[in-house]
Amino acid sequence: MTEAPTSWLQDLGIAIEVACPTLALITISLRLYIRNDTKTLGWDDACIGAAMALSVALAIGSIICMKELYIGIHYWDVPLPMNPTTGMIWIYIVGAVYNPILALVKQSLLIFLIRFSGVKDVVRYVVWGTAAFNLALMIATFVAVIFQCTPIEKNWRPTLAGSCIQQFSFGISTACLTILTDLVSVGLPFHIFLGLKMQKKRKIGLMIVFMLGIIVTAVSVIRLFFLAKNFTDKSLDANFSLGFCVSSIECNLAIITASVPALWPLIRRWVPQLKSSKDQGYYNHQNHTGQQGWIRTGD
């Protein structure tokens, strides 16, 4: 049996697929630890936890795809004959797993914003509306990905009789909608924090933290470029690229940046200089209101 070819580029891609979810998992573990310790676990943690589980699945599927489809290997090193069926099945699985991840991260962020006290009702309605749209988009996109070809098997056996949607148009449009909801999710915190009564330094700090989401949006734009290139690049050596790994970077970076604000109590615990008497009860567990993890801002 011929040994499967490898290359430095494929090895780098696999390293990215392992390192990114590992860093995200460490961040999530710290987040859940401090949330549990301060008794502020909520639905935002459930959403980010689900996104993390899917991100691990995405990484595993992506590594299998890279091996089965020889991604990161020069075309002249690919052994012939090549049967892409197994790889295409995993491409289909990876596509289905990828789409809900960013939506769940954004849902977590939006729920986190709702947990702030002092937010005006009209802003709260906007956040809820954005969350509803994000959830509907996630479900619609997931269903479209699952049933993009009829029969479904045509996704990995293109010669079968049947039909598929315009995959290029679908991929580009969903990527653009993802970027749009990214921008809304990044913009909302700025509007909310500007209207909150809190220490100026804390307000600036929170705004800087939420600005990290812009980096995720930038990576989403880079992914859009590689996605378009994947459909249009007909060169024989098109697979010698790390564009396939951008999705993992995007998803795990989103998980990390969305979790940073929730780590603030842990950071203050590790760096006592950041803590003041006014910080007591920042995460105020309000049993009498039934709102777990209500975040006080009027300090």
TrEMBL record:
The keyword Repeat does not apply. Its main location: membrane. It is found in: Membrane. It is a multi-pass membrane protein. Keywords: Membrane, Transmembrane, Transmembrane helix. Residues 30-269 form the Rhodopsin domain. Signal peptide: none annotated. GO terms for cellular component: membrane. This is Integral membrane protein.
